[in-house]
Amino acid sequence: MRTNSESNREAILSLEEIRAFHPAFRPHFLDSLDQNLQFGSINVFVNETCKLVVAAPHGFKKDDRNTENLAHALACELKANAVINDNKYRKPKRPDDPEAQALSVSDPVTPSSDDLAMRQEFLRKTSAIPVDLNKWPDAKIAAPDFYHPLAAISRTLCRNSTPLVIFIHGMADQSLGGERNPDFVVAAGYEYLRKEAAFRMGLTTAGKLVVDRMVSGLRGLENNGRQVWVEEGLPGYAAARPIRMPWLFKMLAGMTGEALSVHAIQLEIRHKGFREIENIPATARKLGAIFRNL
Question: Where is the composition biased (Low complexity) (predicted)?
Fold first, then answer.
């Protein structure tokens, strides 16, 4: 029987608890990786023998297009853990989109009808719930079906390894000024000019060896006969705030009394040549070969 402190939903749910979510709110756990994603849901793959976790927080058709499909392909390629937003949540952009607090859920296991009412209304009107899953305080209170599986998987993997969470994002092919964007940007909590200082001060979201291996692997790729263009810690794409994972997982560790050690990298990917539906299988194979060696 749970004590009062254990029943407090500030704590991380276990994988067993997540599997038992209320049917109207439950993430979908796949028994085999060859099954299709469920559109309009949070899809979760679990493989405790793999230290990699692929996450797609902005997998909405009008946000980071096709990142949900790429994350799915990567999970299949690597037999990796994955937490994928497949068109259930969208970035808040409309004038009438509420703050995350208005969409909060008091108990992720058994949400009340009041909790679900406004969420269902947004699903009906705009086909997705307006919560930015890259903002952890918002995801925690308003998207526990994304937040808790990611935390639970990471905590579980920490028992035997140091997990690596790779957040798959999409960036525009061109900047607002019209210049061509890089093919990939690797982000680990710092701008490149401050890299050495960031590692010295412990302000990064992943270890230096992991980051350097990813950058090196990406720079060895070719696309349509040319070497790909890779940037690291590009201003505006440094992930200095969105995936401040040391903060996130220290917070989670405080809830559970466990010291969690997790690497996390945000990977921004250009659309043209990489995220079109027809190019996703090849992109997944190329990235998978790099991720296996991290």
Answer: 104-113
Residue 266 phi/psi, 5-degree rounding, is -100, 125
Q: Do the beta carbons of residue 211 and residue 186 sit within 8 Å? A: yes
Best CA proximity match to 91, nearest among 125, 61, 124: 61
What are the angstrom distances between the C-alpha of 250 and each of 96, 118, 244, 246, 271?
Answer: 34, 32, 10, 6, 34
CA 95, CA 270: separation in Å to the nearest integer?
Answer: 28
Distances (CA, A) of 248 to 27, 114, 137, 265: 21, 28, 9, 13
What would the two tokens of residue 165 be? 């969470």
The domain made up of 4-291 has a fold known as Aminopeptidase (3.40.630)
| Other beta carbons less than 10 A from residue 98's beta carbon | 14
How many other CB atoms are found less than 10 A from the CB of residue 19?
15
| Cα–Cα distance for residue pair 265/238, rounded to 1 Å | 10
**pLDDT tens digits for range 66-115:** 999 999 999 989 989 999 998 999 999 888 888 888 888 877 767 778 87
For residue 229, the one-letter residue type is W
pLDDT tens track for 166-195: 999 999 888 756 678 899 999 988 889 999
Domain ranges in the chain are 4-291
The SS3 assignment for 10 reads coil
Max Cα distance, the chain (Å): 61
